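Example 9 (inverse folding). The structure is encoded as follows.
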């Protein structure tokens, strides 16, 4: 499947776009998941399969570990992305 997303060259543009997209989340862990996934989408342009796999993995971690702090959530999103990318 062809990449759905076109990678952005500027991290500043990505951060601004992701900040606007994710500000509506109230739970800090969900903000981190949203922002991390958005940055992956923006910077790397993964295929839809890899992106959805990463999103599902990250959301499962957040829902199963209610005590997770934002930094560990970000780390888990990175691990999910790496795992999903290596499966394809």
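The amino acid assigned to each position is listed next.
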């Amino acid at each position: 499947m062809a990449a759905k997303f076109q990678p952005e060259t500027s991290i500043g543009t990505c951060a601004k776009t992701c900040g606007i997209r994710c500000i509506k989340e109230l739970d800090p862990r969900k903000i981190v998941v949203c922002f991390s996934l958005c940055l992956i989408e923006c910077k790397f342009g993964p295929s839809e399969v890899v992106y959805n796999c990463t999103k599902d993995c990250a959301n499962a971690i957040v829902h199963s570990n209610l005590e997770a702090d934002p930094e560990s959530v970000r780390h888990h999103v990175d691990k999910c992305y790496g795992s999903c990318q290596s499966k394809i």
